[in-house]
């Protein structure tokens, strides 16, 4: 991995030229894949992918899955179909495939994401499966995963402002990059969108004559009395609520159901129900109940972990915390670390009046981590009480020393997938 990182001077350099050349030299494994579902969007890509995988596996289908970034181990990015459910790629297969693509690339410039995506595609082409789910790394139009020219279907989850340096600083520009995965004549399943984003997606689909299947027009997924009600032209499904926490997960589950039904994969209602119950997606409102860090928290504390890091994610996570507060009131404390490429003001705004205090911490696994003192100043601009801390563990110690007259606290560790990964590693509970 360290050697591959040296092949290109820039971590992100969006282009298809290098991956197209490498695919050809590898024998075009991108054209030897099982049917592909290609997923782009700003928020909800991973959860939507996790729902689709769980439902397909409940139906007995073999599913390869490619996601990014990873939380603790790179192997999390490449899930290989296996009997009884997929597994992370093993060390030998990953190392052998990376060495092969490195040899074929022959030292020429290529980004780390491009060459590892090539390795994933080689692995997927060589191992049997019924479906491949490919999650876009960044944007869509020039993302390495867009080497796929004939997907079974494309999916666009909610689009909001993020990665402005690479994708543009307006919702329209970002939506145009995401819509770059739309392919000629292939169905496009669209999650709820801001009107500006939807207009761009609709225009691209019209240009490509790609059939659209749009949330709240062609399909609807809503929470009703603690259940998920899904409806489209094929009928209504009255389903259990998703295992993943938060109102936004009803939307992500609906997007997954819409995609599987529109793709003609024939997933039964029973498999959809089982998938909703079985789904796992670490660091997305994940409840931490045991581990080294949990032991440092106050007795009976409720600890949640989420890697969301942009304003759209902030809204969704804050809504989930508000829902928990309504059911079981507890004082809410945030432990937050963010990268200096993100919008902390937009992320923190939804927590105003909801969080008792924000403890800001470094992001130890990234050189782009924002200084905790600077982050605390920004959080205070939306009237949040703030306190810089040295680490997640230090913040937990400080919360444990807080006045306890309000009862056991609810603690949310948030703001960065890098911070989430470090937290899971330090807690001793990495994804399995």
UniProtKB/TrEMBL annotation:
<dbReference type="GO" id="GO:0005524">
    <property type="term" value="F:ATP binding"/>
</dbReference>
<keyword id="KW-0460">Magnesium</keyword>
<keyword id="KW-0436">Ligase</keyword>
<dbReference type="GO" id="GO:0008841">
    <property type="term" value="F:dihydrofolate synthase activity"/>
</dbReference>
<comment type="similarity">
    <text>Belongs to the folylpolyglutamate synthase family.</text>
</comment>
<dbReference type="Pfam" id="PF08245">
    <property type="entry name" value="Mur_ligase_M"/>
</dbReference>
<dbReference type="GO" id="GO:0005737">
    <property type="term" value="C:cytoplasm"/>
</dbReference>
<feature type="domain" description="Mur ligase central">
    <location>
        <begin position="39"/>
        <end position="259"/>
    </location>
</feature>
<dbReference type="GO" id="GO:0004326">
    <property type="term" value="F:tetrahydrofolylpolyglutamate synthase activity"/>
</dbReference>
<dbReference type="InterPro" id="IPR018109">
    <property type="entry name" value="Folylpolyglutamate_synth_CS"/>
</dbReference>
<dbReference type="GO" id="GO:0046654">
    <property type="term" value="P:tetrahydrofolate biosynthetic process"/>
</dbReference>
<keyword id="KW-0067">ATP-binding</keyword>
<dbReference type="InterPro" id="IPR036565">
    <property type="entry name" value="Mur-like_cat_sf"/>
</dbReference>
<dbReference type="GO" id="GO:0046872">
    <property type="term" value="F:metal ion binding"/>
</dbReference>
<keyword id="KW-0547">Nucleotide-binding</keyword>
<dbReference type="InterPro" id="IPR036615">
    <property type="entry name" value="Mur_ligase_C_dom_sf"/>
</dbReference>
<keyword id="KW-0479">Metal-binding</keyword>
<protein>
    <recommendedName>
        <fullName>tetrahydrofolate synthase</fullName>
        <ecNumber>6.3.2.17</ecNumber>
    </recommendedName>
</protein>
<dbReference type="InterPro" id="IPR001645">
    <property type="entry name" value="Folylpolyglutamate_synth"/>
</dbReference>
<dbReference type="InterPro" id="IPR013221">
    <property type="entry name" value="Mur_ligase_cen"/>
</dbReference>
